[in-house]
Amino acid sequence: MGDGSAAPGVLVTDEALARLRDAAMGFPDPIAGIQLSLAGRGPEGFTHRLTLVDRGEEPPHDLALPLAGGLTLFVEAENLDYLDGVTVHFDPADPRANGFVFDNPNPLWHDELAMELQDLIDRSINPGIAAHGGYVTLLDFRDRVAYIEMGGGCQGCGLAAMTLTQGIETAVREVLPEIERIVDTTNHADGENPYYAPQKK
């Protein structure tokens, strides 16, 4: 199969590129390109995201890679190490990302402690809160601090703080006491039942 990009580290196949061009041409506003980013990690590996980038809204720190046909691929700056070597395919029979399929050869985390935390989330924490329709995503891990986001029924839930302190933090301390802190980055005001009311202006 041919490729639509000669960019280092990222390959977009011809069929995937054609679909991206169609999306850009069908958008009412001028498009600068497409951003490739990571949306999360889980038992099945990485979750990737492709987003149209409006002209004038180009991410200043992303790696800008030219694609055939005049499009630019913006590779998310903060996850460059985890997006190196990705191949973007298109399979109309695959429903997971509107037909786009991502082959990513990278490990979920380069940090061993982060990998252990990811395994704990996938194996124990998420199955435990799935009964309430919620899930937790490990967004980042640095300096022994884990940055998470709550989704599903946990976003905006009045018990989210209790889930964090009595559920997630307790489970992590028991198994991985080396982790010093867990930071919830969730915007709970956007949940279905937000308990963090937005400030009045």
Question: What's the number of helices?
Answer: 4
Taken in chain order, the helices and strands follow as EHEEEEHEEHEEHE
Overall, the morphology is elongated
**If you average the pLDDT, what whole number results?**
81
Task: Please bin the fraction of helical residues.
Answer: 10-25%
Instruction: Decide which structural class fits the backbone.
Output: alpha/beta
Low-confidence stretches: 191-201
Number of strands: 10
How much is the radius of gyration in Å? 19 Å
Report, as a whole number of angstroms, the end-to-end distance: 55 Å
What is the strand content? 25-35%
Major sheet: size, sense and barrel closure?
Answer: 4 strands, mixed
Cross-sheet strand order for the largest sheet: 3-2-5-4
List the helices and strands and how they pair.
Elements: E1 10-12, H1 14-25, E2 31-42, E3 45-54, E4 63-66, E5 72-75, H2 80-83, E6 86-90, E7 100-103, H3 112-129, E8 134-142, E9 145-152, H4 160-175, E10 181-184
Parallel strand pairs: 1-6, 2-5, 9-10
Antiparallel strand pairs: 2-3, 4-5, 6-7, 8-9
Q: How is this structure best described in words?
A:
This protein has 201 residues and is α/β, with parallel strands linked by helices. 25% of the residues lie in helices and 31% in strands. The chain has four helices and ten strands, in the order βαββββαββαββαβ. It has helices at residues 14-25, 80-83, 112-129, 160-175, and strands at residues 10-12, 31-42, 45-54, 63-66, 72-75, 86-90, 100-103, 134-142, 145-152, 181-184. The strands form three sheets. A four-stranded mixed beta sheet has the order 3-2-5-4. Strands 1-6-7 form a three-stranded mixed beta sheet. A hairpin with a 2-residue loop joins strand 8 and strand 9. The longest helix has 18 residues, at 112-129. The protein is elongated. The chain starts with 9 loop residues before the first strand and ends in a 17-residue tail after the last strand. The relative contact order is 0.12. Mean pLDDT is 81; it is low at 191-201.
